[in-house]
Amino acid sequence: MTGGWIKLYRQLLEKPIWLESSPEQKVILITLLSMANHEEKEWEWQGVPYKAKPGQFVTSLESIRKKCGKGISLQNVRTALKRFEKYEFLTNQSTKQNRLITIVNWGIYQEKNAELTDQPTVSSQTPNSQLTTNKNVKNDKNEKNIHHDGDEIMKEIFQLYEKTFGVLNSVNAQSIQYWCEDLSSELLVEALKRSKGSRSFKYTEGILKKWEAKGVKNMTDVKTLDEEFENGKTQSRSNSQPSEWKESGDDF
């Protein structure tokens, strides 16, 4: 897989997945394309032999980080993978040992039989070009919808931030974008709502860091964590009650 080459189309420079990515994410994106198999190859996946198709590869966060080179952290890789999934650029299945990454629509541009020729035959030109056009139009619409929805969500988050803490500075704006990508905008909104009455965005980040450490992925996980906390408080009161009664009895 170290030899050969990949196709990189100039249209990528006009796509939201490129325009809205950080420099680190762009490095990771190109690295992922370079790591993908160009032909079928056998790997070990979930403890058994697995034949990865072109555009797929079995790897780990650490392997991706090393391939990217200096300046890229594991957190950069983790955040980029989540972001690229939202753009439907790839799918990402993980286990405790490794992960299977599939570059979506790899075959449209990368496979040998998908290369464009100067003089395509009449019989193959129309169906193939129509298929490619339809898929490209669908992908463009998906990216535009994601970009539009993302703008609306970020607008709501910024308004909620300023309502809670005042004027938003550039440092916290970057932090907000980071947390939206690393966890989700839904969880960030919830954390901001729970920060009412606090003086600093650090309070919000404290909530988010706690959720991240607990493996929280969505609001269902948040509710479960809240219930566990309340049950723990109830159990603590129940366990301490006899001791308090005993102490009161001794006083008499």
TrEMBL record:
Listed SUPFAM superfamilies? DnaD domain-like
Q: Which PANTHER family match?
A: DNA REPLICATION PROTEIN (PTHR37293:SF5), PHAGE REPLICATION PROTEIN-RELATED (PTHR37293)
Q: What Pfam families does the database record attribute to this sequence?
A: DnaB_2
Q: Where is this region: Disordered?
A: 117-144, 226-252
> Mind telling me which NCBIfam families this protein's record contains?
DnaD_dom
The stretch of residues making up the signal peptide is: none
Transmembrane stretches in the record are: none
Q: Which organism is it from?
A: Enterococcus malodoratus ATCC 43197
Indicate the segments forming the DnaB/C C-terminal domain, all copies. Answer: 158-223
Q: Which residues form a coiled coil?
A: none
- What's this protein's family per the entry? Belongs to the DnaB/DnaD family.
Spans of biased composition, class Polar residues? 117-133, 232-243
Q: What is this protein called?
A: DnaD domain-containing protein
